[in-house]
# Entry
Amino acid sequence: MRSMRFGVITIAALLCCIMVSAHDFEMDGIYYNITSPNNMTVEVTYKGDYFYSHENEYSDSVSIPSSTTYNGNIYNVTSIGANAFVGCTALTSITISASITSIGEDAFYRCVHLSNVYISDIAAWCNINFGYTRANPLYYARNLYLNGELVKELTIPNTITEIKHCAFSNYSNLTSITIPESVLSIGDGAFSECISLTSINIPQSVASIGICAFAGCSNLTSIIFAKNSKLERIGEDVFSDCNNIQELTLGEGLKRISPRAFSSSKGIKTITIFANRPPTTNGYIFTDEVYENATLHVPQNCVEKYQVMIGWSGFYNISEIEGGTPDYLTIHQADNGAVKIAVDLNRTYKVQIEPAEGWKIHSITFDGEDMTNLLDENYTFTTPMLTGSVILNVAYEQKASRVEGAYNHAIKVHGHEGSIFIEGTKQGDHIAIYTTDGMVVAETQAEAAYTKIIVEPSQLYLVQVANKMVKILM
# Structure
């Protein structure tokens, strides 16, 4: 009959319970004598990823070292196999070294009395690939000790770029998290069922959050995304069963929210969102109680857009963010700097352009679209109706210069989001881009009628194409 309870394993015997990266061992039926701290010897057989234990005397802890010895050779221990400790019901504590990078599926399944996990490196812990929720000993254990100190207020090191899935799942002692700007993603279920967690601040660097990342955090009252958050999507069940959320702040980059992202969150009182365009939802994302009782704060001049958008129109109370960021018409000209004009939406604006002596208007782009043909005889450009912040870019062409000569076809130069676009060239036309102090930024020959060159933004450039010299601010 299979017995799954055992105790302290010394380094010499650890090969029977963990996978090592250096070698693939065939150990079915091999017997090991394991000596526990009370000098009792237990005979254990390794069979696949399971243990057979032949005695009934066990202690209650296991230590996973960074290396182990087998037949005189030393091997680095990097992973714990699937099902490795299944059913070890007497196991109450485990020490995991910083060398472990993966723990297989159900490695600690039915370790129902496991209560203490000891680690020495929180960064190494964040980098472990857990096979499934029950691969993490915290599924049962309620105490995580870092160098002997119980972890309650967790600070993620700034060397971490990804918090792996299930990293702190079910850790009930966790009361707060500090996430640095180095973190780019939070994995599936990373903090699910952290029932003592009361607030979370997610920095602008986080661009991806996995399914159920904070699901079941039943005492979470405040969720704050940075205003300039890079996160574009909140997916399925990310905050499901977080029943006590009261304050929610969402960033300006958000474009989509799953209908189930905030399921069961009935007590939300305040929602602040910095996105000028309402994120799509494909339905209602909050409960009836939230739509009726919460106040939705949106950017200036955006109330009407939220009032007619599915998923947001159900709010009884929508108001502008006090002191919020207005919409701007930003004018980039061939000069050192740009002009930002606060505007009202759903209106058009007239901009009169006066070139400096010796220069003429070469091109006008409006959010990347060439609209030079809309310039009238008085050098006045009328914008389309504004629905949000936009950029107007004016490039100037030198009327006469040493590079001017005969040329029979039109050259168009315009810029958008760090790229200079050159149209109308012939194969072999010389193209050069300079800074105002004469430094060559790029030099090439046109291969066709269209050329794109990437440059550093927020700088003034001189673009020389055949007989034209164009001045443009990126």
